[in-house]
Amino acid sequence: MKNSKSTQRMCVGCRQMIDKKDLIRLVRTPEGSYELDPTGKKNGRGAYICQKAECMEKAVKNNGFQRSFKGTVPKEALALLTEEINRRK
User: What CA–CA distance (Å, rounded) separates 52 from 7?
Assistant: First the structure.
């Protein structure tokens, strides 16, 4: 029998390695739009964040998303992500 290892990704807020399934993914598509990716399989550059409001605050304060996407992230995309985090509480 194989031991299956869970895939881990780093949260852009708290910078901890967490199971991918426990994170929310924001993706910049090849067309340049920002979308939530519930499947984790959309094409494009992605950034992961915990499902905690504190992590979202840290990511915005420390420019975690700008670092991950190597550029500015629209406020609309961050608002959409904040709504999703609040919805999952």
Answer: 20
- Could you tell me the pTM of the whole model? 0.89
Q: Residue 5, exposed/middle/buried by CB under 10 A (0-12, 13-18, 19+)?
A: exposed
Structure letter (DSSP) for residue 31: T
Q: Which two tokens stand for residue 45?
A: 């550059």
Q: Which CATH superfamily is domain 8-87 in?
A: YlxR-like (3.30.1230.10)
CA geometry: angle 79, 82, 21, nearest 5 deg:
130
Residue with more model confidence, 89 or 19: 19
The residues spanned by each domain of the chain are 8-87
> Across 3-12, 24-33, 80-89, which has the greatest mean pLDDT?
24-33
